[in-house]
From TrEMBL:
This is Fumarate reductase iron-sulfur subunit. Gene3D superfamilies: 3.10.20.30, Alpha-helical ferredoxin. Belongs to the succinate dehydrogenase/fumarate reductase iron-sulfur protein family. Its cofactor is [4Fe-4S] cluster; [3Fe-4S] cluster; [2Fe-2S] cluster. Binds 1 [4Fe-4S] cluster. The keyword Heme does not apply. One of its GO terms (molecular function) is metal ion binding. GO terms for biological process: respiratory electron transport chain; tricarboxylic acid cycle. Its EC number is 1.3.5.1. The lineage of its organism: Bacteria, Pseudomonadati, Pseudomonadota, Betaproteobacteria, Rhodocyclales. It comes from Zoogloea oleivorans. Keywords: 2Fe-2S, 3Fe-4S, 4Fe-4S, Iron, Iron-sulfur, Metal-binding, Oxidoreductase, Tricarboxylic acid cycle.
Amino acid sequence: MLKKNTPPAAGPRILTLRVLRSSPSEATEPHWQDFRVEEAEGMTLFIALNEVRENLDPSLQFDFVCRAGICGSCGMLIDGKPGLACCALTRDYGPEITLAPLPVFELIGDLSVNTGKWMRGTAERLETWIHSDAEPLLTALEPRMEPELAEAIYELDRCIECGCCVAGCGTLRMREEFVGAIGLNKIARFRLDPRDERSDEDFYELIGDDTGVFGCMSLLGCHDVCPKGLPLQTQIAFLRRKMAVVGLK
């Protein structure tokens, strides 16, 4: 009996990572550099970049901490779309993957950007902490909260400040002072919290103009690229309605 010829098993793919490199501290002009990496089973872009840094070019700059989509440090443009390198499986992309730093944020070098500076500035500007006139009592029990309300607050608190929504925001390209979806999400979170004693009038003073909720052009790039799947579209629409009511008084 003749045996059928079976084609040889295909070997692993050779990936080309095309990285936009630049170092402001060394006045290095932006340029593209290609790195070739052998793909492994279950490989993420974070693993591939580590292969580059360990075996090909130790000067490559990119950020990471948790490697599990929790810290938000490894945000970058992946084939032009904001995403997390530690959650991006190489098998979901073609053999050539283009990587660039997130726009809007201050560039540190290569794929590393200073998201913390932007996030802190936004937090201070929007006063994203609980406002209460009551004197804190450290030995007191925490006030009870209905499970449904606690879950709604937790849902908005899942933001990891990765900066993907900021990088994907079309409004921020035209209005540099726009607080972005992340800022509006934080306001929505504290508006829900019964421990925060601010009124809608107080929140209107923070986001009731073109740099806040009325400046959003509703392109919803933020909603599309959020790696945690937060309901940004719903929160922006909800806040806009509430702030409009205050503005019409």
